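Take a careful look at the sequence and tokenised backbone pasted below. I need to know what the token row says about the fold.
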Amino acid sequence: MTQSTIAPIAVRAPRPTGITVYGCVDDEAALFRTAAPRWGVPLIITEMPLSEENVLLAFGRRAISVGHRTPVPNPVLLALSRIGVRYVSTRSAGFDHIDVDYAAGIGITVGNVDYSPDSVADYTLMLMLMAIRDAKAMVRRTDSHDYRLSGRRGRELRDLTVGVVGAGRIGGAVLDRLTGFGCRTLTSDIRARDGHVDLDHLLAQSDIVTLHTPLTPETHHLLDAERIGRMKPGAIVINTGRGALIDTDALVDALESGRLGGAGLDVIEGEHGIFYSDRREHPVENSALLRLQHLPNAVISPHTAYFTDHALRDTVENSLINCVNFEKREIA
């Protein structure tokens, strides 16, 4: 008796279950809708940030995308886990708005995205130049029709030493730009190859210190009162990373006393609930922020360094890729 041969039946891998995209503003939503068909992924898009009230929009989906503007509390992560979500792609480089360890403990992987480092690098250089040319005070004077020159002359970047803390993609892009200005640069980062120095040495030598390191328990208040005290008198601090890299009260004290010469801050401790909202008719309950805004030598912006069209395209595309790749691994 011959053994019959049965042709195998081709089994098509199941299609992705779709992605729910939270906290998505209009131009961002338009890019998601344009990009999604290329990946064959159905989307649910909402402008509302992820919360316990709208977590069921992710029901039946294994992957979701969230913005960085609103923290994701642990009870919301637990609710996601209970309805089957296994992957959260945050449309940011940082994770400080999500408890990644807690998420992992309940079966959820959290992924971040890379986007054009040029957006933040360009903005960082702008803050440096504004700080050394006393731009905030100048704009305030001219807005009030006072066109006299400042009593304090500006400085040229080529005459200064700039210390870059964190030499990853963004810190590296900042270093590339500084080359064109002809200034001396120092870096403090275990990944740096040339010019790496101890952080305390960098602080003591630098006229400008710019922060580009991730926020972790080890880097929380990296610039505290003690380290700020080791900086050069009149030095300038730039922060386009995360607000809690700096002890803000200690920084304000140093600026008000004249110990430091200025600051350019795109991020502030306690910014959640203040930045990205219209607070003209509501009190701002962040005393350090209010003190900074009264200072003529402190330039403050609402976490906007990343906010370019190119970075947005990268963020949307890479968030989709993260979710699709996760789905592929799940159904492989």
